[in-house]
Amino acid sequence: MSEIPVSNDHNVITGHTEIISSTSIERIVTGRSAALLQIEELIQQLADISTLTSSIGGKTARDWAMRQDFRCGCWLMENVKTAMSTITCNLDRSIWRDLMQKSGMISLMDALACDQWDKNLEVDDFPEISEANILSTFEQLNQSKAEVFERGIINVFKGLSWDYKTNSPCFFGKKIIMNNLVTHNRWGYSLTSGDRRDQLTDLERMLFLLDGKAIPDNRADISINLMNHIRDNLGKDVYEDAYFSIRYFQKGTAHVTFKRPELVKKMNDIIARHYPGMLAYR
User: Fold this and answer.
1) Of 12, 65, 79, 94, which is most buried by a Cβ count within 10 Å?
2) Where is the DUF4942 domain (predicted)?
């Protein structure tokens, strides 16, 4: 497949063909080490100050450093071993998320893959931040970027309902029909949340990538644009943009017509590679 242009941030990823630059990695790893060292020193300083204030009847930092009407836990006031383990994990989690965003890899993932990535981070199933781990991780991701991208298309394809003849199980046609994309009541239409909305957003992202364009952020993707359109056009039941014409119905279904057949063909070429023999569209 052709190269997928994802990120223009040359300080991190160059054209999505090179991994993070060595200078960026060095800055990240050095900065992380310096920050953790200062945090550990700060925890020890707070502990020493607490010992002093307690000895003169002023209690500890848990008492005089916290808002009395909104007391909550703070790792800086735990013992160094317990605190540094959690703080390091939290810091590394944030750095990995930032690296994935800046690398452009997250934009290649469908909603299912993004959800799995987030779950792995939340259960601490990720390597610590180090030069070796960053290089290894992004070398692997860079090598598998085409596979990740194609898996996103396949997941959208497999997730569509085959209850309608328009949705061929062999390929994407001129139009697909999606169940439960909207709801309707006496106040009008609204866009549903959940899998269908994610599928439509995934589909738009695939078309952007195949079209060689930058992915819109989540404040300007199709789900937001469609939601705003429905809110601002109560008497209408059709949405149009550069890639789709979407007609939605009171029973919740939506007819999604593709406006760029050449991009649909590219998606079908990918499907054909994954499902050889299902070539009815050719």
Assistant:
1) 12
2) 90-276
Q: Which neighbouring-strand residues pair with 248? A: 254
Burial class of 278 by CB neighbour count within 10 A (0 to 12, 13 to 18, 19+)? middle
Of 8, 10, 270, nearest to 147 by C-alpha is 270
Q: Nearest Cα to 73, choosing from 93, 90, 54, 53?
A: 90
| 162 alpha-carbon distance from chain centroid | 27
SS3 237: coil
Separation between Cα atoms, residue 10 and residue 20, nearest integer Å: 9
The whole-angstrom separation of Cα 177 and Cα 156 is 13
The one-letter amino acid at 25: I
Task: Supply 266's token pair.
Answer: 């590219």
> In angstroms, rounded to a whole number, what is the distance separating the alpha carbons of residues 114 and 126?
14
H or E segment to which residue 128 belongs: none
Q: How many residues does the chain have?
A: 282
Dihedral Cα 123, 129, 133, 134, nearest 10 deg: 110
Strands (E), 54-204: 175-178, 182-185, 188-191
pTM for the full predicted model = 0.68
State the pairing for strand pair 188-191/238-240.
unpaired
